[in-house]
Design a protein that fits this description.
Number of strands: 0
Structural class: mainly alpha
Protein name: ABC transporter permease
GO cellular component, one term: plasma membrane
GO molecular function, one term: dipeptide transmembrane transporter activity
Membrane topology: Multi-pass membrane protein
Distance between the termini: 42 Å
Order of helices and strands: HHHHHHHHHHHHHHH
Keywords: Cell membrane, Membrane, Transmembrane, Transmembrane helix, Transport
Largest sheet: none
Strand content: under 5%
Helix content: over 70%
Number of helices: 15
Length: about 350
């Protein structure tokens, strides 16, 4: 049974507020712990040779001369109004900069996540129910895929599919073809993690009593797989969707630089190199919001797939829960009829 909508929304809202507050507080402390004077970054960096008077004016304009607690409260107040400040390096509002580049990164992350799901499902299907050699090979592929660094994989894909074969562009061309290699670079390592979880869950689900009960009722292997096994095997992967999406956003920093794609990854790298505190802060807050939203969507999807509760063992899930297990036991266990005159113990 689905949890009451009001209770779920309140819980998600409280969790979002707490997580976001912790994140923005950590960001505020972290960026101010970076060595150096932010006023120098505002004036163009140490090489700008700005005078002491100019540095004082920059500190006064951006509130850097105020006490740290007052700066923190002003920072929180600006966030509540949706004001992320003005970028030091671009001299444009941070919200405008993020609005220009975030759709590109979001598209890349979503396509990469769907591709990783597809690759993980294929690897799981190859290994489940097969021989030991097949399971060993797919397990080795999963480990290798999960361990491959993005920058090396991107370079290999560019060399093979762009330089040698000439099939796909090596840099962004504004078309769908320019998205294939970056998406694969992000998806392949992620699919290694997902496939390990999905394979173990699928193996356990396919040997559970509710699957045996479904087969006893005459369901085909395909019906059992898609109606029962797959439904339970994707729940652990959904649990890690928030982490997966956040990992894809962080991986975009490397991938967008390798493939010369516009996005928040390249903007974040530029902000870090130029000590652009407002830009770095704005992108970090955006990533935190994305994590919260994805986690909420993942939990809602879990509730739709498994209304009985995601913390419940699959054998107890309804309608394929205790009743199905009982049916399986009654179907599989041989009936013992005592002979006349023999008393059963």
């Amino acid at each position: 049974m689905l949890k009451p909508l009001g209770t779920w929304l309140v819980r998600q809202l409280v969790r979002a507020v707490v997580v976001l507050w912790l994140v923005v507080t950590a960001i505020f402390i972290g960026v101010r712990a970076i060595p150096g004077d932010p006023a120098e970054a505002i004036m163009g960096g140490p090489g700008s040779q700005a005078s002491a008077e100019a540095l004082d004016m920059a500190r006064a304009e951006y509130g850097l001369d105020r006490p740290l607690v007052e700066q923190y409260l002003i920072f929180l107040g600006n966030l509540l109004r949706g004001d992320l400040g003005v970028s030091y390096s671009y001299q444009d509002p941070v919200t405008e900069i993020i609005g220009d580049v975030f759709p590109q990164t979001l598209l890349l992350a979503v396509v990469s996540l769907l591709t990783a799901w597809l690759l993980a499902l294929v690897l799981s299907l190859i290994s489940v129910g097969r021989g030991r050699a097949s399971r060993w090979m797919t397990s080795l592929l999963e480990i290798i895929a999960a361990a491959v660094p993005h920058f090396w994989l991107g370079a290999v894909l560019i060399t093979v599919f762009s330089t040698n074969l000439g099939l796909l562009p090596s840099i962004d061309n504004g078309r769908a073809s320019g998205l294939i290699l970056p998406a694969l670079t992000l998806a392949i390592p992620m699919s290694g993690f997902m496939a390990q979880l999905m394979r173990d869950s699928l193996t356990q689900a396919m040997s559970s009593p509710f699957v045996l009960a479904a087969r006893a009722r005459g369901a085909s292997t395909v019906q059992v797989f898609f109606a029962h096994g797959l439904r339970h095997s994707i729940l652990p992967v959904l649990n890690m969707s928030g982490w997966s999406f956040s990992s894809l956003l962080s991986g975009a920093v490397v991938v967008e630089e390798v493939f010369a794609r516009p996005g928040i990854g390249r903007a974040l790298l530029q902000g870090v190199l130029s000590r652009d505190i407002p830009l770095v802060t704005g992108i970090a807050v955006l990533c935190a919001v994305c994590y919260i939203v994805v986690m909420a969507l993942a939990e809602a999807t879990e509730q739709l797939i498994n209304p009985a509760g995601v913390d419940q063992h699959p054998d107890q899930d309804s309608p394929d829960g205790p009743l199905s297990a009982t049916v399986a036991e009654e179907t599989i266990a041989p009936s013992v009829v005592p002979e006349p005159g023999v008393r059963r113990s």
